[in-house]
Amino acid sequence: MTKIADLRSQTNDQLADELLKLKKEQFNLRFQAATGQMEKTHRVGEVRKDIARISTLLREKRAAS
């Protein structure tokens, strides 16, 4: 779980990299769920919420500039 204060201190490029990493993880988790290999089911929700947080921050930063 990523704290919002930590995310706010990052640059747009860092946030975009983190967003890409989380989307890849989300894809892998969906693949694991489909094949029945998923161990950490709670991670799906955490990743989804982190993606939403970062997307919101990127949108806020674009609107501010």
From TrEMBL:
Is Acetylation found in the keyword set? no
Positions of transmembrane segments: none
Statement: the UniProt record of this protein carries the keyword DNA damage = no
NCBIfam families with a match to the protein in the record: L29
Question: What's the protein called, per UniProt?
Answer: Large ribosomal subunit protein uL29
Q: Name one GO cellular component term.
A: ribosome
Q: Which family does it belong to?
A: Belongs to the universal ribosomal protein uL29 family.
Q: Which UniProt keywords apply?
A: Ribonucleoprotein, Ribosomal protein
